[in-house]
Write a structure and sequence with these properties.
Helices cover 41% and strands 16% of the residues. The strands form two sheets. It has an eight-stranded mixed beta sheet with strand order 8-9-7-10-6-11-12-13, sandwiched between helices. Helix 2 runs parallel beside helix 3 and helix 7 crosses helix 17. The two termini are 44 Å apart.
Length: 425
Amino acid sequence: MNAPWKPGPLGNRDPFAAYICDEASLDVLRPVAIEMGWQPEKCNKGGLRNAVQSLSIAASPAILLVDLSESGDPLNDINGLAEVCEPGTVVIAIGQVNDVRLYRDLLSSGIHDYLLKPLSPAMLRDALTQAQAVFSAPRSGEAEAAKRHLSMAVVGTRGGVGGSTLATSLAWLFSTDHAMPTALLDLDVHFGTGALSLDLEPGRGLTDAIENPSRIDGLFIERAMIRANDNLAILSAEAPIHSPLLTDGSAFVQLQEGFKQAFEMTVVDLPRNMLINFPHLLNDVNTVMLVTEMTLASARDTIRILSWLKSHAPGAHPILVANKMQPGLVEISKGDFEASIERKLDYIIPYDQKAASHAAKLGQTFAEANRATKPGAVMRDIAKAIVGSDDGSIAPAGGGSLLARLDLKSLLSKKGKPAVSLEKA
């Protein structure tokens, strides 16, 4: 869908107009409009249909607030609005439908923002201030459009395989060794360890974002994230365990969009259940790192997740990392594991309990506290490979399809003969 509203010069147009369906929302909007220096008469009664009729015979304002509440097909009706809007108009939609798919489709159509009713003065003030900033922001044309941003998700195939350890270590390496402004998003809302690994208090940033997704913008992200160093900021939570996670995932989408503007790298520590419940989290991810171990359960779940990624995130490049490898103490040998999933492991990280304890005692990430160890060296290799690629991916380690039938009986018969090699995968 090609909409004409792209940020442009203000020119001689009216700075603002709104078309709102209900009086309650108008009563909230008018004082904010006056505060912004606009005429309250520009807050009109009537929604999207009234906006299309009015703008078909009058010039479009610089900022247009339009109500979709009475629209039966918002995306189709937005096309009608696009036909009468002049280039350069910043459009903010409001509505009653709390649906992350609608939110993403509206943003893709060119809408600047989408606010949920009931409206609040703070919500409107933030959205309108951000819309105003579009016109004052420096314009760098093609160079800005080509700004590079890499995004990766780290997923453990089983609990305890070390996915969070790798996520925090890689985020730290991106921010220090490669001097990349990096965002770490820990989506284990109740039991996340990202902040703990960095010796930080998680704060309420992520919880506030989930509870109030309409307030997420650049300023919110700046205030909500906790700084670990000059280039690394984390957003995490320790939500009360008696409070279930109630969200449609729109907050996570908005956070990822905001990270694109503020950082060069995003690392998402993504629990398996979040992967299943919110598949749209991988829509803009370049790389998915699967962290596994040499067990039957991990072999099975590696196959299942690789299959899921192929269907639901075809644009994301999978990297397979075997963590905590202990020669002679594994259920399945490296060769049998790779045969069962019909692809090579990209990296193998040896087990080092002493190094893990050392990092915990120092309140540092594993990579920071253990640079001289073999596991630390592999982590640096992974970070270097991701940063050095064009899109955050790493060339596949081996051929073959992603899927295979997991012959559990065959693997079980070989459990007594572990044959693990620590050569590079």
